[in-house]
Design brief:
It is a single chain. The protein is an alpha/beta fold. The protein folds into three domains: 69 residues, Roll (Vcp-like ATPase, Chain A, domain 2); 196 residues, 3-Layer(aba) Sandwich (Rossmann fold); 39 residues. It is built from ten helices and 16 strands. The strands form four sheets. It has an eight-stranded mixed beta sheet with strand order 1-10-9-8-11-12-16-13, sandwiched between helices. It has a four-stranded antiparallel beta sheet with strand order 3-2-7-6, with no helix packed on it. A two-stranded antiparallel sheet has the order 4-5. The N and C termini lie far apart (82 Å).
């Protein structure tokens, strides 16, 4: 292989971790919990004005904030849920971070998929420990984090990204939250197809997902789960047409709106702003090409097809009557004879 060939070869980022040691090498989420905070743990520091800081605790380190400096040594050995005091006398709560915290604290080079959508995607793709999932593109790794969280400790996420800078940022994000052993990253175009087959689910977060459904069908197991997110309605329509042409069934289009409420029991009311439209979610299942997938499309779609077919038949009949009248035929069609 020449040097030029090596430069053009697809890049695969992967730590070679033997299967039997992957759980041990993984994040603290998948090992027995300690009753106290230990060095190397990832924890959330919440100040009294509700600022949230995600930090990896190490001996003799310091966390600088707008309300003073918090010593890591204060937190080590404490039980989760304890409070610590800054050099300016401000208390802060030390909590184990949740998945939402991990996603929201990622360093971003691109727009991430919001936690409200990520959690629902995990649900709709029916993911569990041991699932094998393809994702394209990786972006900053927000959804990758949620997917890996769902399939660990025995599953794998295969994620594809073409841009080198974005690929490297996502890798650092995934390593930071300790989910790297459950992710395989590929820097390559999906136009050439995916390197995996018989996967359980596949998610596309690309601008024109309808161009890659042949590759999707090749990679998915029979009956596998497909999902995509697009921001505009014209993209939804393009993808729906393509799904119908490529033998997908059980097609659904959904949008999630999340409204927070002020947690004041005496004056319960919604927040002034809400997480409204972030994208349209499209879900489908791959079926055999020998199956008539149109029979399994939504009832609304089947009724619309029936109306179109009826309109075409009526228009054809009217056109034929016009021709018949011009040729001296009857003005109206003959009445049907009684039985």
């Amino acid at each position: 292989m020449t040097q030029d060939d090596k430069m053009n070869e697809p890049v695969q980022s992967r730590l070679e971790i033997p299967q039997e040691t992957q759980v041990q090498a993984g994040s603290s989420w998948f090992r027995p919990r300690s009753a106290v905070i230990e060095a190397g743990d990832l924890f959330l520091l919440v100040t009294t004005d509700h600022k949230r800081y995600l930090i990896t605790l190490q001996p003799n380190q310091k966390m600088h904030t707008h309300v003073g400096i918090y010593e890591h040594n204060q937190m080590l050995g404490q039980p989760p849920g304890a409070t610590v005091i800054s050099t300016m006398g401000h208390p802060a709560l030390v909590l184990e971070p949740g998945l939402t915290d991990l996603i929201q604290h990622l360093k971003r080079g691109t727009q991430i998929i919001y936690p409200k959508d990520a959690a629902y995607i995990v649900h709709r793709l029916s993911l569990r420990a041991g699932s094998r999932v393809i994702e394209a593109g990786t972006g900053s790794g927000g959804l990758t984090t949620a997917l890996a969280w769902a399939v660990a400790p025995t599953g794998t996420i295969y994620t594809y990204e073409t841009r080198a800078e974005t690929h490297n940022l996502a890798r650092r994000n995934i390593e930071r939250v300790g989910l790297w052993p459950y992710v395989q990253m590929f820097q390559r175009s999906i136009e050439e197809g995916f390197l995996q087959t018989d996967v359980d689910a596949l998610f596309l977060d690309v601008r024109e997902p309808w161009h890659f459904l042949d590759q999707v069908r090749t990679a998915l197991r029979p009956g596998g789960f497909f999902a995509s997110l697009v921001p505009t309605t014209n993209q939804v329509s393009e993808l729906l047409y393509a799904l119908e042409r490529n033998s997908f069934a059980d097609i659904a289009v959904e949008e999630l709106l999340l409204r927070h409420y002020k947690p004041v029991p005496d004056r319960l009311r919604p927040e002034d702003t809400m997480a409204a439209h972030t994208g349209f979610l499209i879900f489908a299942r791959s079926v055999a090409t020998t199956v008539d997938a149109t029979r399994w499309h939504a009832k609304e779609r089947q009724r619309y097809r029936s109306r179109l077919k009826a309109d075409e038949e009526i228009a054809a009949a009217q056109a034929q009557r016009t021709i018949d009248r011009e040729n001296g035929g009857l003005k109206y069609p003959p009445m049907p004879l009684p039985d």
